[in-house]
Amino acid sequence: YFFNAGATGRISKYLNKDIQCDLARKIGFKVAPYEVVEHGKVPQQVKYPIISKTLNPTMPGWKRDVHIFYNEKELKDAYQSMISPEFLMQEYVDKKNELEIHGISVNQGKNVVLLYQSLYYRFLENDFGFYKYYQPVCNQDIITKINTMIREIGFSGCFEVEFLVKNDDLFFLEINFRLALSNYACTYGGLNQPLLWAQSIIETEFPNDAIRPKKSFFTAMCEPADYAQYVATKKISLKQWLGEMCKADVKFLYNKYDKKPAIKYWSKVCLDILKYKFKHIVARNTY
After folding, report:
1. How far is CA 32 from the centre of its chain?
2. Using CA atoms, how far apart are residues 270 and 260, in angstroms rounded to an integer?
3. Closest to 16 (Cα-Cα) out of 80, 62, 69, 81
4. pLDDT tens across 25-75, in order?
5. Could you tell me which residues come within 8 angstroms of residue 198 by beta carbon, excluding any fewer than 6 positions away?
6. What predicted TM-score, i.e. pTM, was given to this entire model?
7. 276's torsion region: left (phi>0), alpha (psi -120 to 50) or beta?
8. CA atoms within 13 A on the CB side of 281
């Protein structure tokens, strides 16, 4: 069994950002205004600031094409290094957070269960964060609309849906038809996403109500990425970060049953810091 949407090419079709946004808007989600433009062309309908996204997220190097533009000159200058033949140009939403929802679907979307949702404690502009908290999905309107989207696509497999949060509004961002890195944290909450899907596809009847979150709230941190994003760049202190890391319920690198990866990684980080400091001490004394 593989993730599928019932026919060859349907998942590829719905990987396109504009098709996803069209469907989300049709179902009733808020979607920031957008238009599709060819490489080198200027959008005529959306207002600045805008964010550019490749239509095909499977293309190598597609993340290089994600930019925020505040005027036409910035857009034209950036085209020199952008590689996609077409782009989704969308009005930029100054998000206050980003909501990510994990789910599984079987029987081409006839049975859909949403496992957990997560929000960031912190993140950077035009980027995602690595320290977040998880809760069960309780908003019935969101549950109904996601179920409708997955059924319309006819998807069977594991997925995640992402939204931008601004004040009390949710703006649809995208659906990913795969396991997200952050699904690892769902296991701490008693819901092993890939295992649940594998068990579900061999059941004659899929018991939607049998899969329930075991925890009402927990925290998770991807330690190396969060350290690099905030401590190495001196946005927060090492003392603050260590306190948050120790309190996190889920750590993506450290595992008490398998400590070697964490030991090896942090040993290298400490060694690199010592080498850097030694190099600068020698340079200063030489001068």
Report:
1. 18
2. 15
3. 62
4. 999 999 999 999 999 999 999 999 999 988 877 767 777 888 999 999 999
5. 1
6. 0.88
7. alpha
8. 6
Amino acid at 275: K
Three-state secondary structure readout of 5-60: CCCCCHHHHHHCHHHHHHHHHHHCCECCCEEEEECCCCCCCCCCCEEEEECCCCCC
Instruction: Determine the Cα–Cα distance for residues 164 and 228; give it in Å rounded to an integer.
Output: 24
Q: Can you read off the two tokens belonging to residue 211?
A: 């899969």
Tokens at residue 103, please?
Answer: 């789910």
Cα–Cα distance for residue pair 33/39, rounded to 1 Å: 19
The first and second tokens of residue 11, run together, are 């998942």
Question: Rounded to the nearest 10 degrees, what angle do helices 17-27 and 140-153 cross at?
Answer: 130
Strands 86-91 and 111-120: unpaired
* Sheet-wide strand order for 86-91: 34-38, 86-91, 50-54, 67-69
Query: What's the pLDDT score for residue 161?
Result: 97
Token pair recorded at residue 56: 């095909």
CB 107 within 8 A of CB 48: no
* Residue 159 one-letter amino acid: F
